[in-house]
From TrEMBL:
SUPFAM superfamilies the record matches: Adenine nucleotide alpha hydrolases-like
Domain of life the protein comes from: Bacteria
Segments forming domain UspA: 1-146
Family, similarity comment: Belongs to the universal stress protein A family.
Entries under Pfam families matching the protein: Usp
PANTHER family xrefs: STRESS RESPONSE PROTEIN NHAX, UNIVERSAL STRESS PROTEIN RV2623
InterPro entries, A to Z: Rossmann-like_a/b/a_fold, Universal_stress_UspA, UspA
Alphabetic keyword roster: ATP-binding, Nucleotide-binding
Molecular-function GO term, any one: ATP binding
Protein name, entry field: Nucleotide-binding universal stress UspA family protein
Amino acid sequence: MKKILFPTDFSDVSKNAFIYALKLADAVDAEIITLHVYALDSPAFLDVSIYLQEIYEYEELSEFENYKDEIPILRNIAQANDLGHIPIRNVLIQGNLVTEMLKISDDENIDFIVLGTKGATHLRQIFLGTTLTKIMDESKVTVLGVPENCQFAPINKILFTTKYHFNDIEALQKTKNLAKILNSHIDCLNIKPPHKVHNDDYVTDFKNIFKDSGVDFNSVLSDDVEGSILNFIQQNNINMLAIHIIHKGFFEKLFQVSLSKKLAVNINIPILSVK
């Protein structure tokens, strides 16, 4: 049985993403490990050192009581979506969220991480929040980020962005394997600057490798990368955007520099980061 790690802060954004975690678990025959990580705040003044242990114990008890109240709500979400049969384990731990996610991912041999996240409220913020970009860059496994305005829909069409580099082939193969399980179609999209000579030899290689695989290959001439992606998503009823994470820091830099401007505001489908 595969394993899905689902970090949660029990917010509405997180509960919305839980439906995607449940549906994915049902499709790939996986159990879900929910993870709630909390931090203990140190007092800002120094004259309470004798009370520190009591303060920490009180904060830990408060977190535990809140945790006990919230866990049944996740189980109710599963029951309401006819997915009560999905095995669910729950973990409560004190520490740093990203650090603990990566540690549990290694210790438990996690296959997927599903994470709900808020979009940027202004353009200087990192797209989809710091936690998601960090975990997509740092994690060794496939990560599914679910924006707050994303309402669950069956994953019938997946968009895989590519420059037709050879190092995209393995990532596309992983995406195709998931698409087969989900009974989804894949569109590959390559966006080229219009005032440049392009060598499309690699496109032929991709088509030969993935022939008879239900993968379509599309190229668009445009200087507006994010706008072209959004247009393709809207015109072709895409349900998921898949991006190959090439190296550490790739996702954060990609969205800080370029795609954050439009996608942070307009994206309303889940994003799959594929290593």
